[in-house]
Amino acid sequence: MTMQIEQKQDFLTVVKSRRSVRVYDPNFAISKDEINELLRTAVLAPSSSNLQPWRFLVIQDAERKQQLLPIAFNQQQVVEASAVIAVLADLKSYEKAELIYDQAVKAGYMSEATKTDFVSRTVGMYGSLPPAKLRDIALVDGGLVSMQLMLAAKAKGYDTVPMGGYDAAKLKEAFGISEQYAPVMLIALGKAAKEGHPTARMSVDDVTYWNHMNG
Fold it and tell me: Which domain covers residue 58, as residue numbers?
């Protein structure tokens, strides 16, 4: 019981201490292995029908970060952070259903017959949705994995900032991103040279309604 309480407190510490950091130590490097470890934690996030539509473009090379700088409206964290991770949503993630559910069979989570049924229904349903609806679903899932990535980074002592300020069309053109993928956000990842400032939050009473809305 004590161990469970301590683990819960550790999580709350991570959540409460996370800040959006915009000034990074340009000499601090995070290795590819460490980034992969963060991503392995991030992809445990939930997703619609477990289709895991997130894809990650990790930009670490100095020249590529310089190329990204004007696309991100010259926000300096792009070049100062150890890496910038472009979180993308795969609008055809349902085409991976066979692979995903086959792994579930191998892990003993479902039978082959159940897998076959799931794949058929999933591909049929998602394949018939209009592109705008597929995009909405994938962007929600992309937001879930992004938040999990930022919390995983903070738990490891790293800092992040989610970035919506960039030219999505130019990002796709410069980095060879096809129309199959919708940019969700950029996440700068590194070590703070200047701590992110605290921000005020509305009270729960101001944002929560019970059982019905009041208008």
Answer: 19-91+140-199
Instruction: Please write the tens of the pLDDT for every residue from 151-189.
Output: 999 999 999 999 999 999 999 999 999 999 999 999 999
- Give the model confidence (pLDDT) of 8-31 as tens digits: 569 999 999 999 999 999 999 999
**Residue 147 forms part of a structural domain:** yes
SS3 letters for the chain?
CHHHHHHHHHHHHHHHHCCECCEECCCCCCCHHHHHHHHHHHCCCCCHHHCCCEEEEEECCHHHHHHHHHHCCCCCHHHHCCEEEEEEEECCHHHHHHHHHHHHHHCCCCCHHHHHHHHHHHHHHHHCCCHHHHHHHHHHHHHHHHHHHHHHHHHCCCEEEEECCCCHHHHHHHCCCCCCEEEEEEEEEECEEECCCCCCCCCHHHHCCCCCCCC
